[in-house]
C-alpha cells in the first residue's frame, strides 16, 4: 500500500513536466497525456473570479481559531469553575465579578503550578465557558461578555506582569537552549498567557452593533492604554518586539512566536488603526495642511474593480494552435493581441530549480527590432477560429465608461516640463518658476493649464519642505511641536533598536535559516511524537498552517507600520523602508512569489472540524486520511491571498519613486515572476502586480513591450496615470542608470538629520550658551568611576606632570 501511494504521488509530480515537454515538441503523446490527466490541460483562463473581500482581518471566528494548534488543544485542559455547583451563565454579574476577583488574588501566589492552574481557568472564561454552551453563537457571546468583565477587573495588567516574569526567566531560557528538540511543553505558561491576551485584544478591538455603552468606553480606554508608554515607560508593542528579538538571537528558542506575532499585529492594528482609519486620518491630515481633498476613495475604487483574464501559458496557446490546424485554411489574418502576449509565458507547474535556470524570452531584448521567434511566427500565421455566436444582451460584457483613477501630476513634473519647453523655445530656464509662460507657444500654455488642473501635492511633500526649512533656520522657526500620537510614541520606542526589529521581520516570511524550523516546531510539536499515519498527517497540516499564519501576521504588521509611519512623517517611513531594503526584503518577496502561486492561494492546510469554536460544541467525527486530504470546499484560502496582497503592497511602497530599487526588480528578473501572479483572478492583487510591472516597463526593452501588449493594455486600464510619464515608451530622461549607492546615501543623510534634530537629547548643542567663568566651570561636579579614586595619582603623573606644558602658547591668541 505505501508503494502504491508513492507511485501515485510521483505520477502527480511528473505529469505537468511531461505535458510541457510533449506540448513544446508537438508530440502525439501530448493528446494521450491530456486524456489521462485532464486537470493539467485545462486553461487557466477558465479559472473563476475569486470572491475575496480585502480587509484588516478575516472574520472573528477565523482569527480566534488561528491561535490554537490542531494537534494540541489547550481548550481540552480547562477547569470547572468553582461556583458552588452552579453554572457560570446562571450567575449574576456581581457573583461573576467576585469570582474573577478571587482568581486575580490567586494569580499572585508564588507556586508556579497554582498560577498556571488559575491562568487556565481565566483562559476558559475568555474562551466562552464552552462546556455550558450549545452553539457557536453562544460561545462567542459569552466569550465577549467575559473578556470585557476580565478587563474591567484588571486581569490584563496582572497578566502583563506575569508575562514580563516569564520573559525574564533565565532558568527556562537556559534549559530550552540546551534541549535538542523543543515541544509545546516548554512554553505552556507563555502560551496560556499569550492566548488570554490575544483573546482580550481581538475581542475588545472588534466593534459590534449591540455593544453596551460601558463596553464602548472600555474599548477606548484599552486602546489608549496599549498605545501609551504605561508599561515600564514603553508601549506594550515594544515588549512583544523584545520577545521577537530574544527568540531570533537564540536566547529564548522556546518562545511561541506565532502567538507573539499575532498578538503584536493585533496590538498595532488596535492602537494605530486599520485601513479605513488610515483613510480618515489622511483626510484630516490634508485638511490640517490646507491641501485639497483626495480625488477619490482608494478603498472604494479597488473594491469596485473587476479582475482581468490572465495571459495564457505556452501549453494553452499550442493547444489552441492545434485546434486551428484542424480547421479550414484562409488568408493570413491580422496579428491578434492575445497571441502577442501568450507564447513566452512559462507554465506555472515547473519547479523552482528549472525556473531559476531558464531564461524567459520576455526578459531578453532582441538586437533586431521586430524579429519573431520561429514558433511564434508559426502561431501568428494560423487562421483564426470561427467567430463565436453572439451572446444575449444580458450576458454581454459591460465595459467601464472611464478610467477608475483620476490622473495625478507632481510639482516637479510641471517644473521638468517647463524646463524642457523653455530650453527648446527660449534657450534658458527660470528655475522652479511655474507661473511665467512668456515666450512659450499657445499649446504649451494649454499643456501647463491641464497639468495644474491635475496637480497633486502629497502630505509627504509638505513634510519634506517643512523639514528643509527647519534645518536651514533652526533659531528663527524655533522648536517643532510634535504631537504625541500612538504612532509617534511607537517610533520613538523602536528607534534605538529599529534596524534589529526590521531585519528580523523582513527575513521571516521566506526564511530558510535554522530559526525557521525551530519557529514552527516549538509552537506545534507535541510532547509525544505521532505514532500513526493519521497523527502524522495532522501534524503536517498544522505545520503548514502555522507557516501560513506567520506569513500573514508579518506581512500585515509590516504593511501597517509602513502606512502609519508614512502618514506620521515621511522620514520615519523612509528609515524603515531603507532597513527593509538593506535586509534583502525585495529579493525575498520575489522569492516568495517564485512558486506556483495558484497552488499556494488554493492550499487547504486546515481541518474545519478541529477549528475553534466548532470543535468544542460539536461531536468530533472520525477523522480519516481521505477527509484530511480533501480539506474544505472553499475556493481559496483567505489568509494566503491576504498575505500575497500585503507583500505586493509592501513591494510597491519600497520601490515607488525610487529608481535604484526599481532597477533591483529588473536585475532580479521580476517581470516573469509577476506575470505569473496575474493568473490569480482577483482585482486587487492584479492591480498591485500591474503597478510593479509599470514602474519597470521602460527598462525591459522594446521587444518585451511588443510581446506583452495585453499586459500593457491592462496597465493602461487599471493603474493610475501620470500625465507626462512615458512609462510605455522608455524615453524618460529621468530613467538614469543604476546609481544605488548615491541615491540611498543621500536619503540616509536626510533621515539622520531628521532624527538628530527631532529626537537627539543634545540637539542644538552648538547653539547653547558657553560658561566662560573659571570658578563656575571648576566648581561643577563631575562623576568619576570608582576605580579612578584608587589610581588618580598615577593618572596625574602620566597625564599632567610628565607632559611638557607650553605656557607661552596658551597666552597667545588662536
TrEMBL record:
Region (Disordered): 310-392
Residue ranges, compositional bias (Low complexity): 310-324
Sequence ranges of Basic and acidic residues compositional bias: 343-353
Ranges of Pro residues composition bias in the record: 382-391
InterPro entries tied to this protein: Far11/STRP (IPR040185), Far11/STRP_C (IPR021819), Far11/STRP_N (IPR012486)
Domain of life: Eukaryota
Pfam families: DUF3402, N1221
Biased composition (Basic residues): 325-334
Limits of the Far11/STRP N-terminal domain: 47-341
GO cellular component terms, A-Z: cytosol
Ranges of compositional bias, category Acidic residues: 354-373
BP GO annotations: cytoskeleton organization; regulation of cardiac muscle contraction
Residues covered by the Far11/STRP C-terminal domain: 441-792
Family: Belongs to the STRIP family.
PANTHER family (UniProt xref): PROTEIN REQUIRED FOR HYPHAL ANASTOMOSIS HAM-2 (PTHR13239), STRIATIN-INTERACTING PROTEIN 2 (PTHR13239:SF6)
Protein name: Striatin interacting protein 2
Organism: Cynoglossus semilaevis
Lineage per the UniProt record: Eukaryota, Metazoa, Chordata, Craniata, Vertebrata
Amino acid at each position: 500500500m505505501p508503494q502504491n501511494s508513492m507511485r501515485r504521488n510521483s505520477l502527480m509530480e511528473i505529469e505537468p513536466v511531461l505535458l510541457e515537454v510533449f506540448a513544446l515538441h508537438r508530440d502525439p503523446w501530448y493528446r494521450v497525456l491530456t486524456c489521462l490527466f485532464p486537470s493539467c490541460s485545462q486553461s487557466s483562463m477558465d479559472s473563476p473570479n475569486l470572491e475575496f473581500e480585502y480587509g484588516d482581518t478575516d472574520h472573528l471566528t477565523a482569527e480566534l481559531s488561528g491561535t490554537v494548534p490542531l494537534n494540541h488543544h489547550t481548550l481540552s485542559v480547562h477547569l470547572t469553575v468553582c461556583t458552588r455547583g452552579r453554572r457560570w451563565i446562571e450567575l449574576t454579574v456581581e457573583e461573576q465579578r467576585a469570582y474573577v476577583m478571587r482568581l486575580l488574588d490567586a494569580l499572585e501566589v508564588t507556586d508556579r503550578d497554582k498560577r498556571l492552574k488559575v491562568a487556565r481557568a481565566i483562559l476558559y472564561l475568555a474562551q466562552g465557558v464552552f462546556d455550558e454552551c450549545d452553539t457557536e453563537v453562544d460561545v462567542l457571546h459569552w466569550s465577549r461578555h467575559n473578556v470585557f468583565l476580565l478587563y474591567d477587573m484588571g486581569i490584563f495588567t496582572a497578566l502583563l506582569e506575569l508575562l514580563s516574569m516569564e520573559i525574564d526567566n533565565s532558568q527556562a531560557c537556559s534549559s530550552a537552549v540546551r534541549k535538542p528538540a523543543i515541544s509545546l511543553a516548554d512554553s505552556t505558561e507563555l502560551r496560556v498567557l499569550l492566548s488570554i491576551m490575544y483573546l482580550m485584544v481581538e475581542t475588545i478591538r472588534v466593534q459590534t452593533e449591540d455593544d453596551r455603552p460601558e463596553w464602548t468606553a472600555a474599548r477606548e480606554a484599552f486602546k489608549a492604554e496599549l498605545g501609551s508608554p504605561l508599561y515600564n515607560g514603553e508601549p506594550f508593542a515594544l515588549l512583544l518586539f523584545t520577545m521577537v528579538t530574544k527568540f531570533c538571537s537564540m536566547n529564548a528558542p522556546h518562545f511561541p512566536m506565532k502567538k507573539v506575532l499575532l498578538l503584536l499585529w493585533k496590538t498595532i492594528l488596535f492602537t494605530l488603526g486599520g485601513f479605513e482609519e488610515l483613510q480618515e486620518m489622511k483626510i484630516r491630515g490634508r485638511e490640517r495642511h490646507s491641501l485639497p481633498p483626495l480625488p477619490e476613495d482608494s478603498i472604494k475604487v479597488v473594491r469596485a474593480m473587476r479582475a482581468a483574464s490572465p495571459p495564457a501559458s505556452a501549453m494553452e496557446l499550442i493547444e489552441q494552435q492545434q485546434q486551428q490546424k484542424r480547421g479550414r485554411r484562409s488568408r493570413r489574418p491580422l496579428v491578434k493581441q492575445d497571441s502577442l502576449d501568450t507564447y513566452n509565458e512559462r507554465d506555472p507547474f515547473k519547479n523552482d530549480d528549472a525556473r531559476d535556470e531558464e531564461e524567459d524570452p520576455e526578459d531578453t531584448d532582441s538586437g533586431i527590432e521586430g524579429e519573431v521567434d520561429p514558433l511564434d511566427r508559426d502561431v501568428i500565421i494560423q487562421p483564426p477560429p470561427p467567430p463565436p455566436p453572439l451572446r444575449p444582451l444580458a450576458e454581454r460584457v459591460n465595459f467601464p465608461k472611464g478610467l477608475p483613477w483620476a490622473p495625478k501630476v507632481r510639482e516637479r513634473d510641471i517644473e521638468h516640463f517647463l524646463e524642457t519647453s523653455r530650453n527648446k523655445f527660449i534657450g534658458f530656464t527660470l528655475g522652479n518658476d511655474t507661473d511665467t509662460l512668456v515666450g512659450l507657444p499657445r499649446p504649451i500654455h494649454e499643456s501647463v493649464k491641464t497639468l495644474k488642473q491635475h496637480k497633486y501635492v502629497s502630505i509627504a511633500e509638505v513634510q519634506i519642505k517643512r523639514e528643509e526649512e527647519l534645518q536651514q533656520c533652526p533659531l528663527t522657526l524655533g522648536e517643532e511641536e510634535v504631537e504625541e500620537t500612538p504612532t509617534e510614541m511607537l517610533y520613538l520606542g523602536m528607534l534605538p533598536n529599529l534596524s534589529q526589529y526590521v531585519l528580523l521581520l523582513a527575513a521571516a516570511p521566506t526564511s530558510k535559516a535554522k530559526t525557521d524550523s525551530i519557529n514552527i516546531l516549538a509552537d506545534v510539536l507535541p510532547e509525544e511524537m505521532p505514532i500513526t499515519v493519521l497523527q502524522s498527517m495532522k501534524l503536517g497540516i498544522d505545520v503548514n498552517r502555522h507557516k501560513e499564519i506567520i506569513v500573514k501576521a508579518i506581512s500585515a504588521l509590516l504593511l501597517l507600520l509602513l502606512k502609519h509611519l508614512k502618514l506620521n512623517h515621511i522620514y520615519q517611513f523612509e528609515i524603515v523602508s531603507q532597513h527593509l531594503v538593506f535586509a534583502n526584503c525585495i529579493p525575498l518577496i520575489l522569492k516568495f512569489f517564485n512558486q506556483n502561486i495558484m497552488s499556494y492561494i488554493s492550499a487547504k492546510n486546515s481541518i474545519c472540524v478541529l477549528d475553534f469554536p466548532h470543535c468544542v460544541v460539536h461531536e468530533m467525527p472520525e477523522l480519516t486520511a481521505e477527509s484530511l486530504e480533501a480539506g474544505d470546499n472553499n475556493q481559496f484560502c483567505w489568509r494566503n491571498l491576504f498575505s500575497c496582497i500585503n507583500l505586493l503592497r509592501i513591494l510597491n511602497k519600497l520601490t515607488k519613486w525610487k529608481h535604484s530599487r526599481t532597477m533591483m526588480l529588473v536585475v532580479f528578473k521580476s517581470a516573469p515572476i509577476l506575470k505569473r501572479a496575474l493568473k490569480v483572478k482577483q482585482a486587487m492583487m492584479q492591480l498591485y502586480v500591474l503597478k510593479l510591472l509599470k514602474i519597470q516597463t521602460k527598462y525591459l526593452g522594446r521587444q518585451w513591450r511588443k510581446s506583452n501588449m495585453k499586459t500593457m493594455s491592462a496597465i493602461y486600464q487599471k493603474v493610475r496615470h501620470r500625465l507626462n510619464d512615458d512609462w510605455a515608451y522608455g524615453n524618460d530622461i529621468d530613467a538614469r542608470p543604476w546609481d544605488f549607492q548615491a541615491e540611498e546615501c543621500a536619503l540616509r543623510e536626510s533621515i539622520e538629520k531628521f532624527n538628530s534634530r527631532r529626537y537627539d537629547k543634545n540637539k542644538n548643542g552648538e547653539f547653547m550658551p558657553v560658561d566662560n567663568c573659571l570658578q563656575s566651570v571648576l566648581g561643577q561636579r563631575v562623576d568619576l568611576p570608582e576605580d579612578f579614586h584608587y589610581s588618580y595619582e598615577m593618572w596625574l603623573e602620566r597625564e599632567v606632570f610628565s607632559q611638557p606644558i607650553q605656557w607661552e602658547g596658551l597666552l597667545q591668541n588662536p
